[in-house]
Amino acid sequence: MPDLGSYAVYVIGAYAVSLGLIGALVWASVARARKVRAQLEEVERRPRHG
Amino acid sequence: MSIWEYANPVKFIRTTDRLLPWLWGVAIACLGAGLIWGFFFTPDDFRQGSTVKIIYLHVPAALMAINAWLMMLVASLIWIVRRHHVSALAARAAAPVGAVMTVIALATGAIWGQPMWGTWWAWDPRLTSFLILFLFYLGYMALWEAIENDDTAADLTSILCLVGSVFALLSRYAVLFWNQGLHQGASLSMDAEENVADVFWYPLLVCIAGFVALFVALVFLRTQTEIRARRTRALRLRERMA
Q1: Is pLDDT of B47 > 90?
Q2: What band does B188 get if pLDDT is binned at 50, 70 and 90?
Q3: Across the interface, do A14 and B39 touch by the CB < 8 Å criterion?
Q4: Is B84 helix (H, G, I), strand (E, B) or coil?
């Protein structure tokens, strides 16, 4: 761990906020992609009428 | 072979499916390498101390915040002129990514500003135009959600995107034509006198490459999702009408 001196809380805070937001964005995007793909497959499996 | 072939949703999904693993790989490799290099292996700045390490997140996020909106502008113009649904859905898909990049830029800027400027926030031209850009992102996403008809939503959000582009460009160039405010000039410049020192510049370039790859990967994935969601809505509507 580098010596961040008196600014450690700011530097680590900036990294924590940014990586947390990026992680949440990726997680939400992947989760919605899976959910929507499953919904489409379910609708396409249903028998069509008319 | 024409670029408009990718306006076909099936062709778009098939092509981006092949590209996505590579994009995720480049994003993870560049972000990992750039951030580890910048955080652990670069020295403190003689004026900013260790807070200079925030540059590896702040600058790429700010770049992506502006360029995401400009990408949405191009996609919106394609929708307005050529009526390709994939372009409208790509613009929609990019908005949450751009909004998160704007929040990261604003948050890291505030966290850096407190020890360096002595304040979390100032009504400086660049900061203010960035805040307005964030509000435009929120408005854009809200407008998509508020309108049931996809084509009407695409039309109205495209117009909003055109208007918001003024603030996207303003947030990029505000520091150049307003000689007031706290925000310093551009960190990335072709002028060697103005640019950051090489020891910070190279890891920063790697981080920017990682953010670009991450943005493209997320937009491809989210556009695929929007295409599938649109088809699901259409099939459900057809079922109800049958």
Answers
A1: no
A2: low
A3: no
A4: coil
Q: Which residue of A has its CA nearest to B100?
A: A21
Q: Which residue of B has its CA nearest to A39?
A: B232
User: Per mean pLDDT, which range of B98-107, B165-174, B177-186 is the poorest?
Assistant: B177-186
- Position A28 in a domain: yes
Q: How confident is the model at residue A24 (pLDDT cuts 50, 70, 90)?
A: very high
Sequence letter at residue B7: A
Give the 3-state secondary structure of B147-216.
CCCHHHHHHHHHHHHHHHHHHHHHHHHHHHHCCCCCCCCCCCCCCCCCCCCHHHHHHHHHHHHHHHHHHH
Number of domains, chain A:
1
Residue A36 lies in a domain: yes
Query: Does a structural domain hold residue A22?
Result: yes
- Number of A–B residue contacts, CB under 8 Å: 95
What are the extents of the domains in chain B?
17-241
Report which of B157, B10, B7, B4 is spatially closest to residue B95, judged by C-alpha positions. Answer: B157
Mean pLDDT of chain B: 90
Residue-range definition of the domain harbouring residue A34: 16-45
ipTM of this predicted complex?
Answer: 0.93
Quickly state the pLDDT bin for B171 (edges 50, 70, 90): confident
In a domain? residue A25: yes
Contacts of B224 in chain A (CB under 8 A): 33
Cβ–Cβ below 8 Å for A21 and B103: yes
